[in-house]
Specification:
This protein has 284 residues and is of the alpha+beta class. The chain is 40% helix and 17% strand. The protein is built from seven helices and six strands. The chain has helices spanning 3-27, 32-45, 50-55, 57-87, 98-101, 217-224, 256-280; strands at residues 108-115, 121-127, 143-153, 159-168, 186-193, 230-233. Helix 4 packs antiparallel against helix 7 (256-280). The chain starts with a helix and ends with a helix. The model is unreliable at 2-7, 20-26, 33-37 and 133-140 (pLDDT under 50).
Length: 284
């Protein structure tokens, strides 16, 4: 091969190498748009997925329910306060209309007449309430029964039901407390009570064996041929040797504080769980 041919081949190789270098350099050319797009894609990958934002409704809803229970608790406390104030109002005669009576629960009333001790009924088991009205149990709770007796009102001619109070288990039989079976006309002050629904797990009333587990005013009145008017004697109406009056407990189910703690705790825990799942573990 001549020197001219060798130089020609060398020139061709140089040209091919230059073209390859230019092509590689062109491929490595910096593109600002591509870099910004890559950064935007990386930034969007740090955000929670769309369904994660929907999951935030769980702690928000729990917080709302907790706040609602705060309002419900305040309403319940005011209602209990009003009911306790009702028991301290001066006694009034029993209204003639049943509709008026239904608006008077826990209102003191005064009646005059006589008991029909032959038709006693027993609410049991019951514990002794040592407070006249609205109080709790005494330091030593005792089991027994409350005695409900038909009462014939001498002024109106109506027969109503009077819960005379509590007796111990050994004194449920009226023969064991003859001094308490007062004859003749007496005056009784009591608090109006309405019909009571059977609570869950409470046994049904055993009317045949005179065992009443909840206050079914309608059934009691029908059994004793009385009107469905029911009062609970106050402590001042207690007769020596007879049932202990003042067994009314002014109470309403008030578990709102438990609900408040439950819902607020659920709101905090689910919010923290959401944060740790979708933000805390994301690499920065």
């Amino acid at each position: 091969m001549s020197a001219f041919s060798l130089s020609r081949v060398t020139l061709q190789c140089v040209r091919k190498g230059s073209q390859s270098g230019l092509l590689a350099a062109r491929n490595r050319t910096f593109c600002p748009g591509t870099r910004y797009a890559s950064q935007a894609t990386s930034r969007s990958s740090l955000l929670p997925p769309p369904h994660a934002w929907f999951l935030l409704s769980i702690p928000a809803a729990a917080f709302g329910l907790g706040t609602w229970q705060v309002q419900r608790r305040q309403w319940k406390l005011e209602l209990i306060k009003d009911m306790e104030a009702m028991t301290n109002r001066p006694p009034v005669p029993i209204p003639t209309e049943q509709q008026d009576l239904e608006m008077m629960e826990y209102r003191p009333v005064k009646v005059r007449g006589s008991f029909d001790h032959s038709k006693e009924m027993y609410l049991l088991p019951r514990s002794l309430n040592t407070h006249d009205a609205g109080g709790g149990l005494g330091p030593r709770a005792q089991s027994g029964a409350q005695v409900v007796t038909p009462f014939h009102c001498s002024d109106t001619g109506r027969t109503i039901l009077v819960n005379r109070g509590w007796v111990s288990k050994k004194n449920i039989n009226p023969e064991t407390r003859p001094d308490g079976q007062v004859p003749g006309e007496v005056e009784v002050t009591g608090l109006v009570r309405l019909n009571e629904k059977r609570a869950p797990f409470v046994p049904k009333n055993d009317i045949a064996h005179n065992r009443w587990h909840f206050r079914d005013v309608e059934a009691m009145a029908q059994l004793t041929e009385a009107q469905p008017i029911y009062i609970e004697a106050v402590g001042g109406s207690t007769v020596p040797g007879g049932p202990i009056g003042g067994q009314t407990r002014v109470q309403l189910r008030n578990e709102h504080m438990q609900y408040i703690l439950t819902w607020y705790s659920l709101s905090i825990l689910t919010a923290l769980g959401w944060y740790w799942t979708y933000f805390k573990k994301v690499p920065r």
